[in-house]
Every structure is written in structure tokens, then in C-alpha cells.
Amino acid sequence: MIALAPIIDQVKGVTGYRTVEGLFEFAALKAPPRALPAAYIVPQRESAAPLPRVGAHDQKITFGFSVILILDPPGRSTGQAAETLRIELRKVKDALFGWKHPEAADGCALAGGQLLELDASSLVWKHDFTCHYRERKT
Q: Is 130 within 8 Å of 64 (Cβ atoms)?
């Protein structure tokens, strides 16, 4: 797994969110944070490509992670909620799409997203990204 700190720094630097944290902070949430919008970087999966030849120890790894975005309550206007979500997702995409993690072999790519929760206290969206890195052993 690659380090999450550079992803956190990138999202925080581009979006300006006061709360951009990682997996354990997200797991510890009991209620939405006070400063919204907030983002949490959560690793999701890793998958490895087959070794390219016998004896080689050089594998391409696909690392998937999510940005869990927590927004203010949408209010009574569904149009307002949709526009707010669109604006905040654009900020996250601008921060990560094409950005190259220091440990990665290429830039981050979009992998999808979904609504996780919508109620009177918050709107929670999960936006998925992938990047690749290499595991080598000589």
C-alpha cells in the first residue's frame, strides 16, 4: 500500500477543506465533523498484475482508494443539494485526477462514486480513485 499522507495533503491543498484526514479518523466518527465540507481518504483495495516472466520480481499493483466527502445538510432544495455536490466533487476531482502520488508509477484515475448517506445532518458521498505502483525485489 502506498502512503495516504500525500493524498491527504493534495486534497487539503487544492480544496481548502479544514478537515482532510485518513482511515482511522473516519472510523472514529460518531457524528459529522463540525467543519464541513470534510474529506476522509480511505484505502479500498489492491490488486496485482501477474509477474511478467519466470524469476522476475517486478509487479504492477493497482491501488484503489476512496475520498469520503461529508457535506452540510442539503436543506429543502434538491437542486441546491445536487449543485453543492457537483461543486465539491469538482474540487476533489481537480485535486486528484491526473495527479501523481510520489510513490506511484502514474497519475490517479477516476474509478466511480456513489451516495452513501443523505439525511437532515449531512450528505455523504464516496468518490473512488486508482493509481499504480510497482513492487520490486532484486
A: yes
